[in-house]
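Help! Submission page says 'invalid entity' but I think these are all valid:
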Amino acid sequence: MPTQTTGRTLLSLVLGLLFASMAAMGSCPGDFHVLLGQLQKQAHAMQDPSSLLDPYMRIQGLDFPQLREHCTERPGAFPSEGALRGLGRRGFLRTLDATLGLVLRRLAAVQQQLPEAGRLGRPPAARPRAQDLEMLKMARLNILGLRNNIFCMSRLLGSSWDVAEPTQAAPGTSPPPTPDPGAFQRKLEGCRFLRGYHRVLSSAGQVFGEWGKSPSQGHRHRPPRALPEDASRARPSRRGRRLVPRGQLPR
Amino acid sequence: MLLRDCPVISKRKPESMALFAVFQTTFLLTLLSLRTHQSEVLAENLLLTPEAFKVSVNSAQRCLHLQWTVHNLPYNQEFKMIFQIQISRTETSNVIWMGNYSTTVKWNETVHWSWESELPLECAAHFVRIRSVVDDARFPEWNFWSSWSSWQEVNVQDSTGQDTLFVFPKDKLVEEGSNVTICYISGNIQNDISCYLEGEQIHGEQLDPHVSTFKLENVPFIRKGGTNIYCEEKQRKAISNGTVLFVSKVLEEPKDFSCETRDFKTLICTWDPGANTALDWSKQPSQSYTLFESYSGKKKHCEEKNRCNWQITQDSQEIYNFTLITENYLRKRSVNLLFNLTHRVHPMSPFSVQFENISATSAVMTWKLHSLGDYFTLLCQVELHGEGKMIQQHNVSVKANGKYLLNELEPNTEYVAQVHCADDNHFWKWSEWSGRDFTTPEAAPSEAPDVWRTMKSGSHNVTLFWKPLSKFHANGKILFYNVAVENLDKPSRLEHRSIPAPANSTELTLDGCSYQIRVTASNSAGASPAAVIVVPAAPGNKEVEEEIIEGTEDGFSMSWKPQSGDVMGYVVEWCDRPQDPLCDFQWKKLGPNTTSTVISSDAFRPGVRYNFRIYELSTKRIAHLLERKTGYTRELAPSDNPHVVTNNLTSHSFTLSWKNYSTKSQPAFIRGYHVYLKSKEEQCQPGAEKAVLPDDTVCCQYKIDNPEQKTFTVENLKPESFYEFLVTPHTSFSEGPSGTFTKVRTPDEYPYMLVHVIVPVVICVVLLVCGCLLKSQWMKDKCYPDIPDPYKSSVLSLIKSKENPHRTIMSISDCIPDAIEVVNKQEGSKIQSLGTRKSLTEPELTKLSYLYLLPTEKNYSGPGPCICFENYTYNQAASDCASCGHAPVSPEAPPSQWGLLTSSENLLKALEKNYMNSLGEIPAGETTLNYVSQLASPMSGDKDSLSTNALVPPPCSEYKMQMAVPLCLASPPPTENSDLSSITLLGPSEHYR
């Protein structure tokens, strides 16, 4: 099982790096189906809890049956699959991108809270933790790769998208400052957040799958104005309705 | 209880507490006795009560901070006072702690004191009150307790009426091994609550209906992320709340703290930091390290966790006293190091290592050093490595540049030379190694090759073998081998031959002369000394008996007896793979004083027979075969049985033969054979033993102890029987595999008789017939000459002339016998008459001649009357015939020996019918040999009785036609078993028909 997990993680890392480098070089795949296939594969690989949630739970000591049972997605933290389906393609991509951006930030915050054994020498007991920390790093790279492909798909669909400015949650959506709930609650909250993240990616995979079944998309890159309905959905008037995740990883 | 984390103003030991109790009792008694006298100052007691009493809380550290003042003290005076403090939990009556705090107070001074609770302060409300007494000898009138202050309530968490469960302490940082008390406050929750630590339920005690506490002792470090403790409501099965106990590893003292300099500019201090005590969620960073030097008073925070650089100032400080301090949120540790800087010099590694004047056996090594000053002398160590191991090690004292002559090197060898240095005056540490490799040039091989030869018997072909020189002796790459052949018997030109390496043999064809052969090995630097071997004109190898030796896994141990004193050495030769055509020829040369050796080889295999020849090498370098040995490192069981051929199969025996079976190619010495014979017979033949085969069948076993006997005849068998046999070899410890038995069936005896009896008889008959045919005329003359014509007889002319001129010769057919004259003669005379029969041409011719009728009884021997017919005409012929073919026979002889006559009887019988039918009708010319007798009287009784009484001669009362038969027509004497195909011998019954 650890071997499978490692292999899968390695594959996803390679994919993530590949796509990240492609986007960084400004070379997006021009074929809709090729890009869609890549998005599906990425979403499929990243929906697996073993890619992020499981190592997180091991690091935090939450991998016990009682706690695992209670590590459920907080309702409303992430858009439901139905809500994602209801979005236009560009809206869907923006929402997904925003979700991934949030996950990246929270993930970075978590990683900051986890000192590595590195410089003082790593005792044998620390090795599993090091592997899990490595998986968190890989997960971050995978998210970056997926975001880049989302960017490419967005361009393919004719949406103007400033990749330098990652999608932010709308002002005022940040939760108000609350008293420190304690490390335990923050751990549990992070767990629930990641559960929602994997569920969202699963839903995203389903949506991408439906894109592939749709005969209207069985063509190569369209000019930006070829998708009027998506373009209209991408207008600022709709932006306010964009679904954004509300969950957070513990800071 | 006071703990270190609280800002403690005063601490009181348990001993002090006990003393305090005694003191208090005494004090109260005293107080009571003095009560009357002091009543007037009672009002003043109230003035000494602590005032402005306040309690603050540090819930993270579970501390209660108390502060108060004492008014009404004389101005500008200090009083030694004792403050008694009571702490209650949940309610004022539940005092959980009471203690005294002694201190000196001034007028209006605020006094501080702290108390740390085991239980998190959030878990329950706490109440505190205080009173005081002046404990100063200067003011004995003040020496009485004041009144208690009012209770001060401390309530950190008010969960009353809340539906939330709280667990305390929250995110507590403790050190591994500590004892921790936690609690939960359930508020209005009515369900049962279970709490878990890392998945395992923990059990505590109930403080009140809403609060339970859990004491965790000696908490372990589990992970940097902390130990999770959480509680759930059983009915809802929902995690209500939890907390994380951040357990830090115990901060270790740095180990192996050490400082040194490499250039007198920087001190490098290193240490082993031990475990990292950092925790997640920023609860505790990694421990920090600080270097403090006491002489200079300087301090430096170390960036790295295991080393720190300290800049050496130019103020000529030699002695350094360093303190390395490490600390985290929970603990602080330090180690000290005092040293002289000049004793901690770790030189930098030498550089620019070079080699000069490299020859085959020496080289000069040079190197340079980083300067440490003019006063420093370094000790350098030079090491020479070859083939992965150290060969030489030398110490050199060096100021600046080093140089060393490396000797005793081997030609054509790659070496690695390296050098490192240390302070010669105060050794501290060697520098790192600096080195280079170099290769010495080649030199001429230093030793003659090891040469040996094989000679084919009966020819002058010599194959020379030599072993490659070892690297040590080759001194370079051997390019070729030179072979020089010199005729020792007659002066001739030396024959040279150069064979390129890596060949290890060459074949020479010599004539019948003696030759000296010299072999040298050459490399680029020259040739080796010559190996000399002499091949004599006549090898003169005598036949040497082969001796069996026993080998082991380690080889063959063998010894030999020297034959002459003039010995240069001995050579043992063998083949490592004797079964291969090339055989991998090997030899071993031994000194003249050696008479035993052990031959071992990695190529030796069990079950392979190795043959060794031991030669004596004379001082003239001529080899003589001394001994032959043969053996196995380990004998194995024979893998196959001989292929057996069955020969000479008879009804009572057969012969087994396995002559193609080679005993020398077997995996063990064949000591003989076992012949197993299976048959239906229960008993084994003599020479065989009963044996039980692995399949539990019983058979007979014949043992052959001579391995060269490869035939065996199984005898005393029954005809027409099945036998099964198996021949298997046996060695000293086992026998061959239990193979398949071969079936044999013995034939019956009849064909044997046919072959052995009938065939010779037929051959004899054929030969006899052939002889008769070849000598037919002679036989005719002798046995059945032509019957003379009576009309031409001289007798007739005589009769005519003397008696009756009219007399004619009577025809026999006209003659009717009417009278029979019976002459009864003695047997003796009859026999005699037979034996002394004479020719009719003799003078007795005129007398009556009788042809004796013999009795039909074959065994007739007794005397008795016989019937005779007189025949003038035939007397002579019959007599002749008897004389040529019939030997005298004794009366006792069996009837078979009467064959001739018996045969005649048969013929006569054949003619009897004719006679009986037409007696008198037979012309004289046709019946010249027929004589008819008339039965006088038939024999009474049955025929069998006649037969059985044949030995009793009856009276001559029987007549029978009889014919004289020439001998040549008679059959040979019949044997018992002869087949009467040509001549039928009638039985007695037929004689009497």
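Support: the input was valid. A stray whitespace character was the problem, and the output above is from the cleaned input. The radius of gyration of chain B is 71 Å.
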